[in-house]
Amino acid sequence: MAFLSKQASAAVSSTGAGGGYLQLSKLPDGGSVRFALLSDEPLEFHEVWGQCDGQSKPFRFSEEPTPEDITAELGDFEPREGRGGPGTVDVKFAIALPVFNYENGKVQVLQITQKSIIKELDAISQLEDYTNLLDWDFSISKKGSGLTTEYQVRPLPRKKGSQEHLDAAWIEAKEAGFNLERLLTGGNPFKPA
Fold it and tell me: Domain residues of the chain, as ranges?
């Protein structure tokens, strides 16, 4: 018999799976997460982070924004200083997908800004054996931290006996009003406006 309940075990070994978002950046060094894609059409956008009164917030654009677009959209928020130093703004290309996270058994949003992960998922999708990404599970592992972080993406056979639970969770999320497009307006994909 395990010392901790399943709930307690999940709470102390969390790998960035809190809330409605699966956050790869919060994986510990050497950690990994297993998930199944629930859509093979990612939401593509550009993201800029703004700050106001100690609060940080992402602003997302369906097209690459101009400096004027950024200023207009951020309102009272100031763009976070870019890696190029003062006066620069980092505009990151990103994708977001609904996924089923096996660790917590829930539908979550996986947002990916790391080019290496996006390229690897695209490369896997073009291999003959993996043309339907919805039939496979994926594992993403993290090694290192900060600017030396490396991620590895691996396709895996679907976890045995999981398809029914995965399908039920996705149907429940959609019936509750899940809409990934809400990310573009600063909304919550899990809560109707």
Answer: 16-180
